[in-house]
Amino acid sequence: MSQPAKSTSHPTWTRRDLNARQAILVACFAMAVVVGLDLADNNRLGFTFSLGFVLIVVTVAMGVDLQSLFQAGVFPPMLLIGTLAVVAMFWPDAIRVNGLAQDAGFIARLIAATIDHGKTLVVGHGLALGIIALRIATAPDRQPSTSST
Description:
The chain is mainly α. It has helices at 20-42, 47-63, 69-90, 106-116, 118-137.
């Protein structure tokens, strides 16, 4: 005998959103790959780094579950500064900023790199926050009920 079809009010495809920990781990791994590719290509952080950062933080905002949207919202600055800190520590010559002395230390390179990539942070964080706002506004529990009881 065949089973009767189940009628559900939600779509038949399932959402498999990541929790905050999973999204952060995947994002850190992806950022490491982007930095590795950018450093291997031209031995400095450039457009590949900026584009990769924006795509990663937007993907995190789209891929986390609704309970993890706060973490996705505060994550972009931490990802950028953390990544720049690792690069400044292990590959200081990869950070090239106009006016920065060749013998600049870790803190000077980190601050200069953060300022230099400020537009990247503003664009990525702004897009991520916009996506988070859209996800909150269109969350299933915020939609008006169509059933009349």
